[in-house]
């Protein structure tokens, strides 16, 4: 095995003790399928669960995470003629 220029490390097939291996991320293996298929499925499962426990959460948290359940109402100003 060749010596690494950084002290305390060895280059080769063995890992240095205490060095952590990066986990493989599943979205890279899936490619574009993750955006098209996996994300809508996850949102479709998480959203109803979040709505089910909404009453047990502080009032502000569901509004931040889920948005309002009511459509917006806008004030109407005076109409301009012309």
Distance between the termini: 84 Å
Shape: elongated
The portion of residues forming beta strands comes to under 5%
User: Helicity level, as a percent range?
Assistant: 25-40%
Biggest sheet, spatial arrangement of strands: 1-2
Figure out the total of helices.
Answer: 3
Overall average residue pLDDT: 75
Gyration radius over CA: 26 Å
Q: Give the SSE order as H and E letters.
A: EEHHH
Structural class: mainly alpha
How many DSSP-defined strands?
Answer: 2
Question: What summary fits the major beta sheet?
Answer: 2 strands, antiparallel
List low-confidence stretches.
none
Structural description of this entry:
This protein is mainly α and 82 residues long. It has a domain of 36 residues. A two-stranded antiparallel sheet has the order 1-2. A hairpin with a 6-residue loop joins strand 1 and strand 2. The radius of gyration is 26 Å and the shape is elongated.
């Amino acid at each position: 095995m060749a010596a690494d220029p950084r002290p305390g490390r060895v280059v080769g097939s063995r890992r240095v003790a205490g060095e952590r291996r990066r986990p493989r991320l599943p979205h890279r293996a899936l490619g574009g399928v993750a955006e098209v298929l996996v994300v809508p499925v996850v949102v479709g499962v998480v959203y109803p669960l979040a709505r089910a426990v909404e009453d047990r959460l502080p009032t502000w948290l569901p509004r931040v995470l889920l948005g309002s359940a009511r459509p917006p109402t806008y004030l109407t100003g005076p109409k301009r003629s012309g």
